[in-house]
Amino acid sequence: MLGIRDKVAGAFRTEFFIKTGLVLLGASINISLIWQAAGPSIVQALLLIASVFLFAWWLGGVFGLDSKLRALLSSAVSICGISAAIAAAGAVKATKEQLAYAASLVIAFALPSIFILPWLADAFGLSDPVAGAWIGGNIDTTAAVTAAGALAGEDVLKIATIVKTTQNALIGVVAVALSAYFAFRVERDPGVRRPGLRTLWDRFPKFVLAFVAASAIGTWYANAVSAAEAKTTIGVVNDWRIWFLVLAFISIGLEFRVKALREAGWRPITVFAGATVANLAVGLALASLLFANFTP
């Protein structure tokens, strides 16, 4: 009512805080772990994104959602939440209201997942790699994945981050696919330019490259100095990482708008909830299959 929220909204730098925090996290992850986890992470990401996206798209059609909103919800629930929704919105030319709906749903479902998934992983007796792969593949925002992984343990956090980073890397691919689908199938506008490699690069999340680079530098440094010196330096980096992630979590909470959910109605909520359940089930099956014998 006082407009305070809008006045300080410029400080809600969620994307900046979380991406900086993740790049700093990369410095503490040995590059060999990324190399080991890359194979199963890529397989899981491809299968999980494809199956959940198609299910959410189909369910959105059953409930009669607008095609653009279906694209946003399907991308958000299958890839990485708000970042994927933003990329999809640009690809399909969605309205700001539709993006607000999708973002609000992502936050509403991600916040309880931070606490529920680590608890379920413990209740199910999942190993750290399987728990990390499940958390990383299912929680829709990178910030929430990091929070849940931190609650579950450092080893779980590392696997969860690698899995989610792998999914993030596919944002550009999905955005280009949506651009082509809407241009040549849904809207059928002959004047729309065919999306190419430049579009893919523009939409690719560049922080993924910074994450890998930080891991490579951290690995080199750990091998170049004594164990004590490496532990001290990485400890300082981790302290900075924690501060950036804390600011990201605060920003997520401040950005949540109940009004946007009320305006969206019950159908998008039902579709998103159904796709989330499917994501949890398929994600657990894939994580259990692909990471059952994974030994970091």
Give a written overview of the molecule.
- The protein is an all-alpha fold and 296 residues long.
- It has helices spanning 4-8, 14-26, 31-62, 67-80, 82-92, 96-123, 128-138, 142-152, 154-168, 171-186, 197-203, 207-224, 227-255, 258-264, 266-290.
- Helix 4 runs antiparallel to helix 10 (171-186) and helix 8 (142-152) crosses helix 13 (227-255).
Topology:
Elements lengths: L3 H5 L5 H13 L4 H32 L4 H14 L1 H11 L3 H28 L4 H11 L3 H11 L1 H15 L2 H16 L10 H7 L3 H18 L2 H29 L2 H7 L1 H25 L6
Low-confidence stretches: none
DSSP strand content: under 5%
Q: Kindly state the mean pLDDT as a whole number?
A: 77
Question: Compute the gyration radius: what is it?
Answer: 19 Å
Q: Class by helix and strand content?
A: mainly alpha
Number-wise, the strands total 0
Quick rundown:
Helices cover 82% and strands 0% of the residues. By secondary structure, the chain is mostly helical.
Features of this protein?
0% strand; mainly alpha; 15 helices
